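Take just one protein record:
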Amino acid sequence: MEIHYSTKEDIDEIFRLYRIATDFQKAKFIVHWPEFERSMIETEINEKRQWKIVIDNRIACIWAITFNDPQIWEQRNDDPAVYIHRIATNPEFRGQNLVQQITEWAKQYALTNKKKFIRMDTVGNNPGLIAYYIKNGFDFLGLYKLENTEGLPAHYHNATVSLFQIELIDR
């Protein structure tokens, strides 16, 4: 298993994994991801904020990061944090606890970049997903109604989000 930046050559596979994840969300939940803008993913790749886990020369999982997320985290955005977004796992690699691998990677990445927190959000109240992220080391901070969703992807509009974080202790 290796973790690398995603590249422009990965874009078709990234969108395939997003479609699979969205179809799964549609089957299980009320809220699901919209179709993301290609330019958004290209920007993340160019800014080295789109990541992938590669197993046997195949993309097993993808996610994006940012160091700022003010519309979701509001006043907490002032804290030094890495924000993880849009984890999508290739179905052929499910069950390999890739979120735990991302979590361990994020701890090192955050410390290297002098960040104190690793944060994530999910839209809605999904008890199974909340339990899963807690199992992977995140603290569940609760449900919050977003105040300003202008410019955010459509699934955040009129949404309540579940917020999660890991507070890092310098080693």
Q: What stands out?
A: Residues 60 and 96 are 10 Å apart (CA to CA). Helices lie at 11-28, 38-46, 70-73, 98-112, 127-135.
